[in-house]
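Late entry, evening session. Most of the bench is empty. Finally got around to the prediction I had been postponing all week. Sequence below, unchanged from the version circulated by S.P.
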Amino acid sequence: MSKDIFHILAVDDHPIVLEGILTILNQQESLTCSGISDISKLPSLLNRSRFDMYLLDLEYPQCDGIALIQQIRKVDPKGRILIYSMHDEPWVLAKLCNLNINGFVVKNAPTRQLVAAIDSIRNGQDFFTPDIYEFIHKKDTLHIPHNGNIFDLSEREIEVLKYLAQGYSTEKIAEKLFLSKNTIQTYRKRLMIKLQAKNVAEAIMKGKDWL
């Protein structure tokens, strides 16, 4: 492969989405993007070719996106991986904490963010929005449970949980605690991970011992 051209493989099982990705990326300078929608064909493709970057979703009908990342890493450990997915929930991000990925862009983000992510990774820098970076790269400070055990909640997290149980919105909790909305959102995400909850109602139920 040419050293001057950056080669990307986009893997998406939705042909329309894949076509859009290819159209956008193949318009970029010194960049070429190939696509595959049938995951079953990926092993044979990887036996024949290597790519500078793999653009992956996290959900496929044929296999789990995490397993796909691990599969690619086994055959191409140096290939860079950019996740392009609608799934940015805390319990999904927690699964990525021990995987060596280079970036994450949410599918509903502006197209320019995807292009910016590719440019950053191409130039040797990872690309994550601040909240996603915190989850994936600061797992020790977030005390993400790896063994299924629930960690103790901090005093501030308990405060946020109590307000959530009372039906307060993120904005109202921020006003009550004199904190920014983004800070409260971070506490909410920490609660979801620590309590292994998929939504606020489940977090309240699992956190009843702190209420």
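Two things to note before I forget:
The first helix runs from residue 15 to 25.
The chain is about 45% helix and 10% strand.
Will write this up properly tomorrow.
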